[in-house]
Amino acid sequence: DLRIQEISREVRDGCQELNLPDSVLRQCMDKLRAQIDLGLNPDTRDKSTVKCFNTYVQDLPTGKEKGQFLALDLGGTNFRVLLITLNGRHFDMQSKIYVVPKAIMIGPGEDLFDHIASCLESFTLEHRVANKNLPLGFTFSFPLNQVGLKNGILTRWTKGFNCAGTVGRDVVEMLNAAVEKRKNTLKIDVVAVLNDTTGTLMSCAWKNHNCKVGVILGTGSNACYVEKIQNVIGFDGDKTKPYVIINTEWGAFGDNGELEFIRTPYDKEIDKNSVNPGKQLHEKMISGMYLGELARLLLVKFVKDKILFGGQASPALLEREKFLTEYISSIESDPRGVFKQCRNVLSKIGISDPTDQDCSNVRYICESVSRRAAHLASAGVATLLNKMEIPSVTVGVDGSLYRYHPHFHNLMYEKIPELLDPRIENPTINLMLSEDGSGRGAALIAASGSEHN
Ligand code: ADP
Fold first, then answer.
1. Catalytic pick from 80, 343, 371, 372?
2. Which of 321, 370, 329 is closest to 349 using CA atoms?
3. Which residue in 57, 233, 338, 397 is a FRET match for 145, CA 20 to 30 A apart?
4. What is the ipTM of this complex?
């Protein structure tokens, strides 16, 4: 029976607070813009939730970069070591994923950096480059107050990491100290530290010179963009060059209450149960680490109200983080009115015979959660584009949420133009899926970083 079931009125009404009309999105944009402007000035940055760190990356790739580079990618689900060869338009990459045990994610910082150095050592030995002193780009995707291309002070951990004794310290120094302990077998030269947004922008710009914004929609959410030097107060990089990439760290937007007017009880519950309560509130409404749990909290509410599953929850549905963000993608990948994936997901969490009406409601709940996330991300991108005032821009995007969710791209592609300043004439905005920004982007920056050494 392919009849499209009606969504229950109670579910529609209950999800209404997740529906953000353009007028509300524009309010978010005005607030975000105000925080960005505070962040771009070192005298007011402390007051801003959106730090707008200078990355010291001032050149987009030329396509002429050459050489062999190492990269480290730490910042979420996987930790990777990469060996990259660049030669004009040719690009080759070998990489290996290493597990970061939970105990190390929340243990002493020294253990984390020792673990990184040990993985680097075994990788470079395997690939016979351990003693070549190769230039290394360190993709470290946590908020860093950069004081140079290869100096970055950790300001906070996010995304489930919390290593003692590291906040306020230079992550490259900590990495070098751990490498130094293995100096008989391992010689590397850290020439740049960057985050995944900058890597994404660079990696996309290598293919498409029009790329001026990098966005991450993965475990966390963040963005960077190309800013004019004259807009960066007290800029202490190379003033002979016109631009610099600014890492906004927009995930922390809302941490001073700017988003209270749209936060729901579900958002507050997520925050309360996180390792960083009160922090990264914008990210907690948008990114992959949280969307599944948001959907679960709504599902549980409607079960308790006896609107879903005849009022019967399963043990898994009542357990925190058991409803994965991947499930939202599966459920929304069913054609409308078909509930094959939906039933499949529900059976995984122990709901065995949902009605079509249940499935219709479950899908609507998932859509409400992902639509809000996509619209908030769109509002963020539109804020940057309005600030840049360039009519034609490519936005590089990376992260599994954007990559695998069946509608995220389309939702953003439709919403961003609606939020652009009408003064921008004939805008052409492209969203480009990034291919391995943390690897190729790191190598491209390392290439320019090693030139300057
Ligand atoms: P990271 O951001 O950590 O570098 P990813 O870009 O792979 O890594 O993002 C991981 C996040 O993406 C996880 O939070 C996960 O829930 C989410 N994710 C993974 N697969 C999917 C999917 N199919 N649909 C939506 N989200 C997904």
1. 80
2. 321
3. 397
4. 0.99
